[in-house]
């Protein structure tokens, strides 16, 4: 397969970026999107040109590092997959593909397609943990937790912190991410002890980082590669109300 790539190139955070055009040929339909970019970077090395910087790590859909906006969609055209799990057979031979970084004020561009998502880490550090000592695995298994509750908590815990929800939202809201992190603890006994403090601190940090508010467009849920549900946002709002009333 042959492709024309229009890629956002930006030297550093302060430089003015622009779209640059590249050609790649003889791409296997079974290559992943990132492998196709590896081929392009091999070509650029051979031509003594600066390679295209992009984030990646596991290439298995679990770390949340890959973060490209492809033809106007976070993680590209396929639903419920990350960029590293997107294969070139999802495109047509000869197609022009536009590749941009995730864009949001809270995710400044570092170089080319790499953005700084450390805001998510600071939100996690504000409360995305439990300090309750759960003991070893045998002790944990003695805590009776209903199957449906455990399954719902696990669904929320599937969030990989990729930031597609922010990049997709017209308000650059991080509510889906934060609500998944709040929910994964809020439903379990181990998470209830610090529940009020957790939601208040995480929401305060989210606001301090400059993310926008949620206006219920639902775009985040549509583009989330892990299928994180909007119900988590409703749960986080309830948790936040409850914490506010308790502190009053
Ligand atoms: S909620 Fe979905 S889109 Fe947002 S960070 Fe988590 S996995 Fe990524
Ligand atoms: S590189 Fe880890 S999720 Fe894509």
Report low-confidence residues grouped into runs of 5 or more.
none
Assign a percent range to the helix content: 25-40%
Rounded to the nearest angstrom, the distance between the terminal CA atoms is 63 Å
Radius of gyration: 20 Å
Strand count, sense and barrel status of the largest sheet are: 5 strands, mixed
Total strands: the figure is 7
- Hetero groups bound? iron/sulfur cluster, FE2/S2 (inorganic) cluster
Structure report:
With 248 residues, the protein is of the alpha+beta class. It is 39% helix and 12% strand. The protein contains ten helices and seven strands. The protein has helices at 33-46, 118-127, 137-140, 147-157, 164-168, 175-186, 189-192, 195-208, 219-223, 231-247; strands spanning 3-9, 18-24, 68-70, 73-74, 96-101, 109-111, 114-115. β6 and β7 (114-115) form a beta hairpin. The longest helix has 17 residues, at 231-247. The mean pLDDT is 96. The structure holds iron/sulfur cluster (SF4) and FE2/S2 (inorganic) cluster.
């Amino acid at each position: 397969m042959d492709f024309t790539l229009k890629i956002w190139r930006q030297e550093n955070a302060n430089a003015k970026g622009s779209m640059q055009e590249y050609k790649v040929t003889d791409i296997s339909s079974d290559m992943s999107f990132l492998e196709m970019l590896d081929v392009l970077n091999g070509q650029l090395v051979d031509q003594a040109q600066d390679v295209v910087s992009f984030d990646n790590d596991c290439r298995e859909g679990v770390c949340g590092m890959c973060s490209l906006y492809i033809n106007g969609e976070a993680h590209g055209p396929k639903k419920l997959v990350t960029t590293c799990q997107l294969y070139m057979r999802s495109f047509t031979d000869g197609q022009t593909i536009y590749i941009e970084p995730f864009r949001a004020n809270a995710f400044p561009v570092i170089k080319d397609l790499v953005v700084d998502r450390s805001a998510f880490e600071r939100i996690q550090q504000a409360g995305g943990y439990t300090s309750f000592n759960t003991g070893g695995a045998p002790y944990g298994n003695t805590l009776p937790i209903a199957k449906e509750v455990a399954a719902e908590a696990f669904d929320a815990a599937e969030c990989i912190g990729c930031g597609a929800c922010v990049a997709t939202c017209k308000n650059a809201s991080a509510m889906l991410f934060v609500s998944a992190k709040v929910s994964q603890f809020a439903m379990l006994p181990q998470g209830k002890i610090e529940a009020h403090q957790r939601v208040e601190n995480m929401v305060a940090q989210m606001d301090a980082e400059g993310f926008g508010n949620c206006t219920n467009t639902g775009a985040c849920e549509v583009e989330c590669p892990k299928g994180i549900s909007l119900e988590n946002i409703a749960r986080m709002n309830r948790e936040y109300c409850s914490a506010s009333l308790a502190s009053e």
